[in-house]
Specification:
Helix 1 links the parallel strand 1 and strand 2. The protein is of the alpha/beta class.
């Protein structure tokens, strides 16, 4: 069985979009993307792992380090783990299934900015997550150092939204859904 851990940052939501959208619009955007991801994962048990300064003392998000939170959750879940961010507005169920492949191989989906769009960790692997800047390369190095085969799966479904260029690309090429409708309802000068 697979359990998903969805990473959520709502406190300072999409700060790189702050020149274009206010905090409430950015938070609403994040929540709509989270709902989209949860709908895609509708048959998989999900734990939402928040990252915020107010969660520093929680049992999962120790000292603001999302990777420690993932490891603590992994200790409590006796199943394969799928870790992905909440901001994947083009994600489809087939993307998730293809990423997990045969359910025996460590698998990663890169995001467009050398980050990690998703990480699948079989339960018998002792793999340490490295989410953060340049996480795609960090995960590859971690797998190599531990002698673990790493399968890379690329799909536009694992493109996240961080910059205004990401927003514009999603409006032009992404699927029509509630996330796109929300963005299009905002100030058109910021997007187009």
């Amino acid at each position: 069985m697979v359990n998903a851990i969805v990473l959520l940052n709502i406190e300072n939501a999409k700060s790189r979009l702050s020149p274009y959208f206010g905090i409430e619009d950015r938070r609403n955007l994040v929540l709509l993307m989270l709902l989209h991801v949860l709908n895609v994962l509708d048959e998989i048990p999900v734990t939402i792992l928040p990252k915020s300064s107010s969660c520093k003392k929680s049992s999962f998000d120790v000292e603001g380090d999302i990777n420690i939170g993932i490891l603590r959750l992994k200790e409590k879940i006796d199943d394969d783990i799928l870790v992905l961010p909440c901001d994947l507005p083009s994600l489809k169920g087939e993307d998730v299934l293809k990423l997990m492949g045969n359910y025996r191989t460590l698998s990663i989906a890169p995001s467009q900015n050398n980050g990690t769009g998703a990480l699948f960790i079989p339960k018998d692997l002792d793999f340490i997550p490295k989410f953060g800047k340049d996480s795609f390369n960090e995960h590859k190095i971690e797998a190599e150092e531990r002698g673990m085969p790493l399968r890379v799966f690329e799909s536009d479904g694992f493109r996240d939204i961080d910059t205004i260029e990401d927003v514009r690309r999603f409006i032009d090429e992404g699927p029509t859904n509630s996330v796109k409708a929300h963005i299009q309802s905002l100030d058109p000068k910021a997007v187009f």
